[in-house]
Automatic annotation (TrEMBL), chain A:
Keyword Methyltransferase recorded: no
Entry similarity comment: Belongs to the bacterial solute-binding protein 3 family.
Pfam families registered for this protein in UniProt: SBP_bac_3
SUPFAM superfamilies from the UniProt entry: Periplasmic binding protein-like II
Signal sequence segment: 1-23
Keywords: Signal, Transport
Name of the molecule in the record: Amino acid ABC transporter substrate-binding protein
Domain of life according to the entry: Bacteria
Keyword Signal set for record: yes
Species: Falsiroseomonas selenitidurans
The Solute-binding protein family 3/N-terminal domain, residue ranges: 35-264
InterPro entries: Bact_solute-bind_prot3, Solute-binding_3/MltF_N
UniProtKB/TrEMBL annotation, chain C:
InterPro entries registered for this protein in UniProt: AA_ABC_transptr_permease_3TM, ArtM/GltK/GlnP/TcyL/YhdX-like, MetI-like, MetI-like_sf
Pfam families: BPD_transp_1
PANTHER family documented for this protein: INNER MEMBRANE AMINO-ACID ABC TRANSPORTER PERMEASE PROTEIN YHDY (PTHR30614:SF41), MEMBRANE COMPONENT OF AMINO ACID ABC TRANSPORTER (PTHR30614)
Family the entry assigns: Belongs to the binding-protein-dependent transport system permease family. HisMQ subfamily.
Subcellular location: Cell inner membrane; Cell membrane
Protein name: Amino acid ABC transporter permease
Length: 341, 405, 447
């Protein structure tokens, strides 16, 4: 034991065990460390995808990059922590990650009981089903008695149980934490339907051997507001993440993008002036420079750019944005940034 | 240790009247023992105190809860396979019980299959047939040298997911159906009077044990053998059957029937269960095979020859001469393989079979976020199982040690 | 038959034996004896051959015959053969990641160099006429980690670090120089230097030996000082490399810790015995996955606020403690196998506890234990697949990532098959080595 401890200490010293300031001031910790510890999930296309050359990309990864850009003016100052969903909240709560950006559904229990704070919603999703076309099923109501493949440890698992209970139907779950295992099971006929957030269903279906033999059922059985999460207790840090997200949506609403942000600095529009920090100082109270949104927009872009780049209709994920929940409120969606003033 | 530490100090120890010098004091084994123990004790207690106080402080600042209050909360998720009744509305505590029951089920069935398979492969390793011997050797080498986690996944996808769909189920003997949703059996439904049959069974088992004890004593005293095994079997099988028939067969069967998507009714196990049990049994059987082989080879060849010289039949040589001696070598590592199998069943998480780790330490932890109590309860369960088995094993070891001369 | 030419004395000369019947020699005879000696045996043979054929044919058909070897993405593979054949290009594209993890590819030579150094360092242990094998082995175990950790991690090196790295390098040079000196001249490096410089007496020879070691260290220091490597944070480590690092550290740490625990378990001091037994039984009774989980989530809570322990270190700590408990039981078995007479003889010679343990008991026990230690290492190597569950990019996690790559979305079985092969090759070679070792070590004890 004694030897164990001393060796442990030696190993710890070797592998760079670093002391940091108090747990309260996340922003200061991030600044002194020189990078943002951003937690993403195990690689998933569209949201936190890992390419063969080791780079991360996706909707949620861009959220991390945006926060890093706001703080450091350098979106690459992010350490991505890829964590299984089983330990995601503990990894945030125990101080390992500064923020969690990994398609996490905002729920009352998570917000209220787990010591977490949701900073906003960067993607509105909903749970759906995919079934073989040959089964002749056209509605989720016809799934009574079916075997359903479902990702474990997520709200999808709970929603599935709720939906069948609410409709007085029975089902058998085949659970796993690895989407590919579930997809293989489904393709092998091990379950009658595969359920997940609809954002993922389309992408997965496109990778089936014969995509047209499978249909996505029309029902959306749950609300899945996905967004970045921070620890409870550091309100300032929560504000930073929240207003970076709102700023990106606001920028799209005002027509400011990475391409025109430099010209827009000269814009006479007071709303754009406030957003880009040429008038007033929104960032001051949060410990950020006045032009933090300029940094975000220049390096990462506005919400629309991020969306189209990662999950838009022209990507393999291919989720059309028009008239979906993720369109701006001005376009029939429900993305409604709080006023930037 | 016991043999080595005492002797030199006996010479050094002085009579109590002479004042003890420092050197002698330092060299005194008792003093040193107390000193070492005090230091270790202080270090361990200090370490534990340090860790616990840090944990408490950290949890307070981060708003984490270590309480067990969440156990009454409704879990709300479906569990694919439960040995004991469970519904989505049941509490987390119930989920814990479901997990334990499932883990124990896998462990028990796995142990039975692994032992049988291990015995067969172990004997095949010693076979005179070259092909069988070689196959058995490669069976052991290949399966022992790939991670179990990968084997479980391989069984799941390579075999059980490739079985036909429910409509084309494979019927085995008209009472069991296999498809890629699982294996389906008729479930017994006890009716009035079935308790009497069970009572008769218990009595018959007791009688069979009594007969075998009596037969062994008679063999020892008079040398005359009595077919206790046969009589015992007749008792155990016959008496309950007679009672069962006499009471008018008070047992109904709930037959699985193909309805809608799949079979409904009866008793069923999901493919993940089958894959897990098969993978665990086969993986463990490799180790058991090696243990059996080593055990049998550990019995000197002279024993077999002596038995043959005395005219003992080969089947009896194995049963009365070789196996009893081999067992002494086989049992301790065998038990530790059983424990390993139980622990390895935690890999069920890879294919989503709801064992304790998967349903409790993964799903429940995920949904409730209470890491500390959940991890502690999981480890507690494995500790308890392991300790019980260890005690039993040590008791057995002591028994067979006593018999040695 | 030379005796037959002499008339006296008459010696019994057996008639040459008849040749064996043709049915019992050659291929036919071998088959009759080994495959078809009886009807059940023949049936078994056919059954075995059938099982072999069915399984091997199915796997080969999928993995080789119907497989796709060139494609841009998985869609192309699927369009060509569907799911009937393997889609290998996806695995090929990810092979560097499967081996090095996310380690920057322009820095991957550092891992290769580390591996080459390790092999080169261990090589003298198998060379003939090298006598300082114990010293070389100890150097390898204790000092290679210093050299390797800088090689793999890189970054700024302070004074202490520089000294430690130089020590590692000097030790490596010393090992090879000694090995060469012993192979050519039969004396160690220090003694060789003394002879070359013409030392007259033993005292001077010893001093020259020490001086040459110091010179060696200075040379190493001079080599190390200008060396500058880019820092590669441990979160980028992964693949086979990470698997080997974790199991390597685990086994290296567990050996001394296991010896101490085993000695503690056999100690007469009740408190120490209780602590050791509790530790061993606790860690042996729970699955590794729960220990990993516990350390992953709890270690940050165990330490004072603000102290960050990286994920890899947490996994390594868990693996080390787990492996130590198992090693302790192996060592206990080895200690029990030493005849009581050895202990008594050591005590009779007036050796104290540490002397008798260190010089008499352990060297004998370790020799008995080597096969079990290799077995333990194989087990540990296989068990490292579990670190994927806490989110380290080991071989298994990396293979999962292939199927999440947008180009190869859903490619799951192929990378999985590939890493299974890697595991098998490694474990099989180690287990064959262990069997070989067992045979050689046993040779001296067989009569």
């Amino acid at each position: 034991m004694k030897m164990g401890v001393s060796l442990l200490m030696a190993a710890a010293a070797m592998l760079g065990l670093s002391g940091a300031a108090s747990a309260q001031q996340t922003l200061e910790q991030v600044r002194s460390r020189g990078n943002l510890n951003c937690q993403v999930g195990l690689p998933t296309p569209g949201f936190y995808a890992l390419a063969a050359n080791g780079t991360w990309s996706g909707m949620d990864v861009d959220m991390c990059r945006a926060v890093a850009a706001a703080i450091f003016n350098d979106p690459s100052k992010v350490q991505y922590q890829s964590v299984t969903s089983a330990v995601r909240f503990t990894s945030l709560a125990n101080g390992e990650s500064d923020m969690l950006s990994r398609t996490t559904t905002w729920t009352a229990v998570r917000d209220g009981q787990l010591g977490l704070e949701f900073a906003g919603v960067n993607f509105y999703d909903g749970q759906g089903f995919v079934v073989p076309r040959s089964s002749g099923i056209t509605s989720a109501r016809q799934l009574d008695g079916a075997t359903v493949c479902v990702l474990t440890g997520t709200t999808t698992e709970l929603n599935l149980a709720d939906y069948f209970r609410a409709n007085n139907m029975r089902f058998t779950a085949v659970t796993n934490e690895n989407v590919n295992v579930l997809v293989e099971t489904y393709l092998g006929g091990g379950c009658d339907a595969y359920t997940n957030d609809k954002s993922g269903l389309a992408a997965r279906r496109s990778a089936f051997p014969t995509p047209n033999d499978h249909v996505i059922l029309p029902e959306t059985i749950s609300k899945e507001p996905l967004g970045p999460v921070v620890r409870h207790g550091d309100n300032n840090w929560g504000d930073i993440v929240r207003w970076v997200l709102f700023g990106m949506i606001e920028a799209e609403e005002m027509g400011v993008s990475s391409a025109n942000v430099t010209q827009m600095l000269q814009s006479p529009n007071p709303g754009i002036k406030r957003l880009l920090g040429t008038e007033g100082n929104v960032g001051q109270g949060m410990g950020l420079p006045a032009d933090f949104m300029v940094r975000v927009l220049r390096h990462v872009g506005n919400y629309g750019e991020v969306y189209e780049r990662n999950v838009g209709a022209n990507t393999p994920i291919g989720i059309p944005r028009e008239r979906s929940l993720n369109a701006l409120w001005t376009n029939g969606g429900i993305l409604y940034p709080m006023p930037f003033r | 240790m016991s043999q080595s530490s005492a002797p030199p100090t006996a010479a050094i120890r002085r009579p109590a009247t002479t004042p003890m010098r420092l050197g002698a004091f330092v060299n005194d084994a008792t003093v040193r023992a107390i000193f070492y123990q005090a230091v270790t004790f202080a270090a361990v207690v200090g370490l534990i105190w340090y860790l616990v106080s840090n944990t408490i402080a950290n949890m307070a600042t981060r708003g984490m809860s270590a309480g067990f209050d969440f156990l009454d909360v409704s879990a709300g998720f479906n569990i694919a396979f439960t040995l004991i009744p469970y519904r989505e509305g049941d509490s987390y505590l119930r989920v814990f019980q479901v997990g334990i029951a499932n883990t124990l089920l896998v462990a028990v069935i796995g142990i039975v299959f692994a032992s049988a398979l291990g015995l067969v492969v172990g004997l095949a390793r010693l076979s005179t047939n070259w092909l069988i011997r070689t196959l058995a050797r490669w069976y052991v080498e290949v399966l022992r040298n790939t991670p179990l986690l990968l084997q479980i996944i391989a069984w799941y996808f390579g075999v059980f997911n490739l079985l036909p769909r429910p409509r084309e189920s494979i019927a085995l003997g008209g009472f069991m159906w296999l498809n890629n949703r699982g294996a389906y059996f008729p479930a017994p439904v006890p009716q009035d009077g079935f308790e009497t049959v069970l009572g008769a069974l218990a009595l018959a088992v007791g009688a069979a044990i009594a007969v075998s004890v009596w037969a062994r004593r008679r063999l020892r005293e008079t040398g005359r053998a009595f077919p206790a095994g046969l009589v015992g079997f007749a008792l155990v099988a016959g008496v309950p059957l007679l009672v069962y028939l006499a009471l008018g067969a008070p047992l109904g069967w709930n037959w699985p029937a193909l309805r809608g998507f799949n079979f409904v009714g009866g008793f069923s196990v999901p493919p993940a269960f089958c894959a897990l049990v098969v993978a665990l049994s086969i993986y463990t059987s490799c180790f058991i095979a090696e243990i059996v082989r080593a055990g049998i080879q550990s019995v000197g060849h002279g024993q077999t020859e002596a038995a043959r010289a005395l005219g003992v039949k080969p089947s009896r040589t194995m049963r009365f001469i070789i196996l009893p001696q081999a067992m002494r070598v086989i049992i301790p590592p065998l038990i530790s393989q059983y424990l390993n199998l139980t622990k390895n069943s935690s890999l069920a998480i890879a294919i989503g079979f709801p064992d304790l780790v998967s349903v409790w330490m993964n799903t429940s932890l995920n949904q409730s976020g209470r890491a500390i109590p959940i991890v502690a309860m999981t480890m507690g369960f494995y500790c308890v199982v392991s300790l019980i088995v260890s005690f039993a094993l040590n008791a057995y070891n002591r028994r067979i040690l006593l018999r040695e001369r | 038959m030379s005796d037959a030419t002499r008339p006296e004395p008459l010696v019994f000369a057996p008639k040459p034996a008849d040749p064996p019947p043709p049915s019992s020699i050659g291929a036919v005879g071998w088959m009759r004896a080994n495959l078809f000696s009886s009807v059940p045996n023949a049936l078994l043979t056919f059954l075995g051959a059938w099982i072999l054929y069915v399984t091997v044919a199915a796997v080969l058909d999928w993995a080789l015959v119907k497989a796709v070897w060139e494609a841009e993405n998985r869609r192309q593979c699927l369009d060509m053969v569907g799911r009937a054949g393997a889609c290998w290009p996806g695995v090929a594209a990810w092979i560097p990641n499967l081996i090095y993890g996310l380690y920057p590819k322009d820095q991957a030579w550092r891992i290769d160099l580390g591996a080459v150094l390790l092999v080169a360092w261990a090589l003298p242990l198998w060379l003939p006429r090298v006598r300082s094998k114990v010293a070389i082995g100890l150097c390898l175990v204790l000092l290679f980690p210093l050299l390797a950790s800088y090689l793999f991690m890189g970054g700024a090196k302070g004074v202490v670090w520089t000294a430690a790295i130089a020590l590692g390098l000097a030790a490596f040079l010393w090992c090879w120089l000694t090995a060469l000196a012993e192979m050519r001249r039969g004396i160690s490096f220090g003694a060789l230097m003394a002879r070359l410089l013409g030392a007259r007496d033993d005292a001077r020879a010893a001093r020259i030996g020490q001086a040459s070691l110091l010179a060696l260290y200075l040379v190493a220091l001079a080599l190390v000082l200008p060396l500058e490597l880019v820092e590669v944070p441990t979160r980028l480590w992964g693949g086979l490399f990470l698997t080997l690092v974790i199991s390597g550290i685990g086994i290296t740490f567990s050996l001394p810790a296991g010896v101490l625990l085993a000695l503690g378990r056999r100690s007469e001091m009740p408190l120490i015995r209780v602590f050791c037994v509790t530790f061993i039984e606790l860690f042996r009774s729970v699955p590794l996955i729960t220990i990993l989980f516990m350390f992953n989530t709890m270690l940050p809570l165990f330490l004072p606020a603000g102290v960050e322990v990286n994920r890899l270190l947490r996994a390594i700590v868990a693996v080390c403690l787990f492996a130590s408990a198992y090693m302790a039981e192996i060592v206990r078995g080895g200690l029990q196998a030493i005849p009581k007479g050895q202990y008594e003889a050591a005590a009779a010679m007036g050796l104290g506890f540490w002397q008798s343990t260190g010089f008499i008991i352990l060297p004998q026990a370790l020799r008995i234990m080597i096969p079990s230690i290799v077995g333990n290492f194989i087990g540990l190597f296989k068990d490292t697949t579990l670190v994927s569950i806490i989110g380290l990019f080991d071989l298994l996690s990396m293979s999962r990532a292939v199927g999440e790559d947008t180009r190869w979305l859903g490619l799951f079985i192929e990378p999985f098959f590939f890493i299974t092969m890697i595991y098998f090759v490694f474990c099989f070679l180690m287990s064959q080595y262990s069997i070989n070792l067992e045979r050689r070590l046993g040779a001296g004890q067989r009569r």
